Amino acid sequence: MGRIALPVASTADPGTPPVTTPPVTGPPVTSPPPAPRVSLCAVSTHGSCRSTVGARAVRVAARLDRRATLTLSVQAPAARGKRATKPVRVLSRTAARGTTVLSWDRRVGRRAAGHGTWTLVVTATAGGRSTTARLRVRL
Predict the structure, then answer these.
(1) Which residues, in sequence order, are bridge partners of residue 93?
(2) Domain boundaries in the chain?
(3) Contacts 24+ apart (CB under 8 A), 1-10
(4) What is the CATH number of domain 38-138?
(5) According to the UniProt record, where is the region Disordered (predicted)?
């Protein structure tokens, strides 16, 4: 905690001007940097559901306001009457400020992603803070 200094007047001689002590200040208070901003610019699917596995990809363009680590996770569609499944991390990369394109090959682990509406979760992390953007893609 910082100290508070009060002005002290000298009482020795009435003709002398009062002497004041300067206030004592502590270190400046700094707040943590704000979370990075991430915005999803575009999405495109290459190939169709009936094409070969090598031709399937979902590309997501993410725009960052500063250098951050981008993590792309996918969440499978919920089964009928069930809750959504836990997101699975697909890739993570450090990206510079500006637009970065992330590509998902429509695979979860070693298996091809099935038909349905998948949720792509892009998380940007910088300075201990993170921001998440979600996008739904139908395969």
Answers:
(1) 70
(2) 38-138
(3) 1/26, 2/26
(4) 2.60.40
(5) 1-35
How far apart (Å, rounded) are the C-alpha atoms in residues 74 and 113?
10
The tokens of 122 are what?
A: 């892009």
53: nearest Cα among 114, 118, 122: 114
Rounded mean pLDDT, 7-29: 65
Residue with tokens 């038909």: 115
pLDDT at 2: 57
Helix H or strand E segment including 100: strand 98-104
Cα 8 to Cα 1, 3, 14, distances in angstroms: 22, 15, 14
In this structure, what is the dihedral angle of CA atoms 106, 112, 118, 122, given to the nearest 10 degrees?
A: -40
| Ramachandran angles phi, psi of 87, nearest 5° | -65, 145
pTM over the 0.70 mark: no
